[in-house]
């Protein structure tokens, strides 16, 4: 993993205690927290997400932010919005 992923992981997993393998679901699809952080670590070149996460006061707020971000990204991919094509469909898992 890259250095930025390690920084994100330290905040999300260690500081807030969020499970990297937690599945955030939208309709019949999900991404894990880890899938999301890996993609963020590649695409967030100026580390906006890390700065935002560090400002959140507690696990509850961090969880709400991550859940909303993942849900939004799944919705965007399913709608075919090109701006979120970086969230590869193979990372979005369908529940049967």
Structure, described:
With 96 residues, this protein is mainly alpha-helical. The chain contains four helices and three strands. The protein has helices at residues 3-15, 33-43, 48-55, 59-78; strands at residues 23-26, 29-32, 93-94. Strand 1 and strand 2 form a beta hairpin. Helix 1 packs antiparallel against helix 2 and helix 1 (3-15) runs parallel beside helix 3. The longest helix has 20 residues, at 59-78.
Question: In brief, what are we looking at here?
Answer:
Helices cover 54% and strands 10% of the residues.
Layout: helices, strands, pairs:
Layout: H1 3-15, E1 23-26, E2 29-32, H2 33-43, H3 48-55, H4 59-78, E3 93-94
Antiparallel strand pairs: 1-2, 2-3
Helix pairs in contact: 1-2, 1-3
Spell out the key features of this protein:
96 residues, mainly alpha, three-stranded antiparallel β-sheet
**Which structural class is indicated by helix and strand composition?**
mainly alpha
Specify Rg, calculated over alpha carbons: 13 Å
Give the amount of beta strand, in percent: 5-15%
Q: Termini distance?
A: 30 Å
**Biggest sheet, in brief?**
3 strands, antiparallel
Main sheet strand line-up: 1-2-3
Percent in helix? 40-55%
Average pLDDT, all residues? 86
The low-pLDDT segments are none
**What is the string of helix and strand elements?**
HEEHHHE
């Amino acid at each position: 993993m890259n250095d930025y992923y390690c920084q994100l992981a330290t905040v999300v997993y260690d500081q807030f205690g969020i499970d990297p393998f937690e599945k955030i679901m939208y309709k019949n699809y999900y991404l894990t927290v880890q899938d999301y952080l890996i993609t963020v670590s590649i695409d967030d070149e100026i580390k906006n997400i890390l700065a935002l996460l560090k400002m959140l006061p507690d696990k509850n707020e961090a969880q709400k932010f991550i859940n909303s971000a993942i849900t939004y990204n799944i919705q965007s991919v399913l709608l075919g919005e090109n701006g979120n094509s970086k969230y590869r469909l193979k990372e979005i898992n369908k529940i049967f």
